[in-house]
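[Archive record]
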Amino acid sequence: MLIVLFYHTYVYIEVTPYEYLATFAIKFLHWPVNDVPLLMSVFFGTNFLGRFLGIPLSFVLRPRTMIIINLIVTTIAYVMLLLVKGLPGILWVSAALAGIGMATTFATTLLWISESIPVTGRVSAIVTASGAFSCIIQPQIVGRLFEVPEVGGPMSMVYVLVTAAFVHIALFSAMLVFVARCFSKQRVRALHRSMDVACGPEKTGESENHAYPDSRQH
């Protein structure tokens, strides 16, 4: 269930800038149309750079560490957008950070999950289905709020992104706790098994002594 919610939330973080960042710059910040392609080029360029750098970094950093870095960078990028009304130029920085921050989250999370549970066809189907379902729901939420002045109008996109970023961190924290508890239980079971194996011959000898008490006396 946590995996489903994690990837469901991830789609809000990734797809929303794809679909609404250009509209946000034109409709809310009143940017010239000629500047918007450059803004999206910065976003997609840093996203490509993050995926490219993710290959060598995966040999150095653990998947959990990479996910934590991605979540922090993405959250900073979207929290910065709360200041965009007074500082429109901050949108450039936010787009660059968001692009590089979300670049490897999908693949790295799947790699981290594979360390705890076998990534079978069923698990992959759950991940794909949760993302696909979110792609259906996300435009209905963000797109409708975009046209409602009572909830901020175009700024509602920022509120959705900030909320999704913090929910993403909360879900990953819950997954960390769940995995830690599972591993602790597995270690306790392994310890009990090793103790049983180590004490096995002694118990066997004791049972033989009780079964034949007079054999050693003779």
The mean pLDDT is 83. The chain has one domain: 2-181. The chain is about 80% helix and 0% strand. Residues 155-211 form the longest helix (57 residues).
